[in-house]
Each structure stands twice: as structure tokens, then as C-alpha cells.
Amino acid sequence: MLVNALPFVLAILLVVIYSFDKIVYLIAFFAPLSLPLSEIMPGLGFDMYLPTEPLLFGLLIIFILKLIYERGFDKKILTHPVSLAIYLNLIWIFMTSLTSTMPIVSFKFLLSRIWFVAILYFLTAKMFEGGKNIEKYIWIYTIPLVIVIFYTLTRHVGYGIWNKQAANFVCNPFYKDHTSYGAALAFYIPFLTLFSFGGFVSRKVKVFSLVILGILLTGFVFSFTRAAWLSFVAAIGVYVIIKLKIRFKPLFITFLSILVFFLVFQNQILMGLEQNSEQSSANFKTHISSMTNITSDASNLERINRWSCAVRMFKDKPVFGFGPGTYMFEYGSYQLTKDRTIISTNSADGGNAHSEYLGPLSESGVFGMLTFMLIIGIVIYTAVHTYTRLTDKRLKSIVLTALIGLVTYYIHGLLNNFLDTDKLSVPFWGFTAMIVAIDIYSRNQLETQKNPD
Question: How far is CA 403 from the centre of its chain?
């Protein structure tokens, strides 16, 4: 069997050596379709997504060797503010891996983060140089995602399309649960909307995009993912703010006012939330209103349990945390009996800290969370200023759409965490690379206009 696979492996190596971009496209294509090794060979002491993670690791090794041989990479990408923020985050993850309670787990987490960033951010940023290849990158993930949607909906119909409980598992084995599936759909709906109605797109592409958009929206609705729905509404709000050119100062004052209002009336607000007994269900109105049920909805209560554990872990190790990737092994002893729910376990079944912010806080301390938030802050700042600076309608639309896609995950990240998987890392780092590549291109154009000689 291994001998039969040898020609395929050699072919992949040749493609990698002479054309990195084709392997990146291959990774993007297989990301929605990749399967965890545990599904194929249960009982192993480790897990990975196939075939994407071996491809990522192999490409990382060859990429490093090529960098050493050629002695360089695009300096404008390497020194971009977003890249500098990523270095800070990686350095802190490395430092907290040294102090980790489980160093092997933490260094494995660090390695996977490095191959996601090196390939899906740095290499793709180079591929997107001058605004090239962006639409191709979107379609290469979207087409297999449509296959997953058809697979999921077909299974869902078998259980009853309005069966909300079935929505939790019908996307298996491609997506672990409906929340990661919903998050992926939220990422790509803005781009398919752009392709359906954008002024720079041909009529044939618009018609095809409109059909695909309808499929994505259908999958999105029947994912029954409240966090994804909420994040999508918030992203639309951000879109409106940017299009209306609302200044930062009134937004900050509004946010501050809401925060003060919550702090002053928090007891009354919490009492009001506790009176909500709506359970998540197939009824959309009930399902949406159940978002604020912190009395009896098991999903909401379990999130609060996981968040509470993360905060208690942070209080015990506020600077270095327990170590990257260790939350699932350490949080069990931090659960209080009064916080446990009918779905509570001691092994992080069904997700980790359920937060891209509290997870790093418990695993890498306060600087772990702050360096991740710094990446987000700089990406938003870069995107807004690049959008304002650009005159090219296509690139302007792409930057705004990439930001809106990312905002869906920035908001979703308050409630779930999936950046340790290829499924969400491909769009997260890829969309970030789009913004950086177009920012660099627009600055180059500006410099050329100022200094035509």
C-alpha cells in the first residue's frame, strides 16, 4: 500500500518545490472535506485532519528550506504591522509552552499554529500580491463546502429538516458540530453576496454566484447555529457603520455608555435574563430568544461553566497560564458543582473554553489574550484605512468583504473557538492575508503616484 502511494507523494513533492500556490489551493480545497484521523483509525493517542495537516506540515518544512536557500521573503509582508502582531503572539505562545504544565501538548499546539500562519497567512499574502488569485481562493473553498451542505441537508432531511437536535451531528464527520459548520458558512456568505451583486463581476458569474449564495444561506439557516446568526447580524452592523463613514469617537462613546449602563444595572439585567426559560428548538423565534436563557438552556449554561473555569484558571496563573492547548486537560478540577450541567464532562467534550479570548487567557495568561486581540485590532485598523485609501472598486469591495467575513468570526469567537482546526484557519488567516496584500499594494501605488520617477 505504501509503495503504491509513493508516486503520488513524489508528485506532491515536485509540485511543492516548483509551485507552492497549487498546494495551498489543494489545502483550501480539502479543508471542508478533511477528516479527523480518529474517524478513520479510532483509538490512537493522537489526532490530525487528513489530508490537510500532513500537507501543511510538509509544505512548512519545504518553505523553511527554500527560505534558507533563497535567503529571503517579501520584506513588506514580513514587516507589516499585522505580521509583527502575529510574531508577538507566537513568541508569547512559545514562552508559555516552556512554562506549560504539559509541554508536549503546548509545543504541539505551537507547531500547528506556526504551520497555519506560515502557509495560510504568509504564503497566501504573497499569492495575493497585487490583488491576484483572491476570487480563486474563495471559490476553491466554497465548492467543496457546497458538497458538505448537500451532504448535511440530505442527512438532515432523513431525521426531519426541522429537527434541531439532528443539526448538531448531521455535518459529521466533515465538521465536528453545527457551530463550526455555521461559522464557516458565515465566513463565505459575504463574498458570495459580493460575487452575486458586485459591479466588477460578469453576468454569468453573478448568476452562478447567486445560486451558490442560495445554497449557503439554506445551509446557514438549517445549521441552527445561534452564535453564527448573531455574529452575522453584528457583521452587517459593522458594514453599515463603514459604509456610512461613522466616526470612531461617537462609536466609542456609545460603547462606553452601554458598558456603564450594564455595570450600573447588571443585577436587574441578570434577573431579567434568569426569567427567560426558552429552550433552543426548531422554532426560529424560540431558538433565537433562547440565546439569553441562562436559567435552563443546557448549551448556554455549559458555556458559562466553561468560561467560569477559564477565569478561575487565569486567576491561578495570571501571567503564563497553564500552557497552550492545555485547557481541555486542566479545566475539570475548576468546575464547581453548582455550575455543572447535564452535558458537563471533565475532558472538554464538545469544545474547549468556548471562547477565542478566554481560552488564551487561561492557557497563556493575560498577554496570550492581549496579543491575540492585538492581531484583531491591527487587522481592523488596516482594513478600514485600506478601504478608505483605495480607488479600485474591485479591491475596495474585496477588502471590505474580507473584513466583514472576519468580523463574523471575531464575534463568533466570543462564544466558540475553532482556530485549532483547518476548517476555520483557512478563511481566518486567508482573509487576513487578503487585507495585508491589498494594503501593501495600495501603499505601493500611492508611493508611485507621489514619486513617478
Answer: 12
- Model confidence over 143-161: pLDDT tens digits? 999 999 999 999 999 888 7
Contact 434, 402 (CB under 8 A): yes
Cα–Cα dist 215/329, whole Å: 38
Coil, helix or strand at residue 36? strand
Q: Are 315 and 296 in contact (CB under 8 A)?
A: no
The DSSP result for 266-318, as a single string, is HHHHHHHHHT--PPP-SSHHHHHHGGG--SS-HHHHHHHHHHHHHHHHHHHST
Long-range pairs, 90-96, Cβ under 8 A, ≥24? 90/114, 90/117, 92/364, 92/367, 92/368, 92/371, 93/324, 93/364, 93/368, 95/320, 96/320, 96/321, 96/323, 96/324, 96/363, 96/364, 96/365, 96/368
CA distances from 77 to 93, 230, 397, 434 (A): 21, 33, 21, 11
pLDDT of the residue at 73: 87
Higher-scoring residue by pLDDT: 261, 344: 344
Indicate left, alpha or beta for 215 from its phi (over 0: left) and psi (-120 to 50: alpha): alpha
Helix (H) and strand (E) counts in the chain? 21, 2
Q: What is the pLDDT of residues 168-221, one digit of tens each?
A: 889 999 998 889 999 999 999 999 999 999 878 889 999 999 999 999 999 999
Q: pLDDT tens for residues 273-314?
A: 445 455 454 544 554 444 444 454 667 788 888 888 999 999
What are the DSSP E strand ranges found in 27-159?
A: 35-36, 49-50
pLDDT band at 246 (very low <50, low <70, confident <90, very high): confident
Q: How far is CA 35 from the centre of its chain?
A: 18
Amino acid type, 390:
L
Which among 377, 433, 124, 451 is positioned nearest to 385, based on CA atoms? 377
Torsional sign, CA 108, 110, 111, 113: positive
What tens digit of pLDDT does each residue of 57-79 get?
888 988 888 888 877 788 999 99
- Separation CA 196–CA 213 (nearest Å): 8
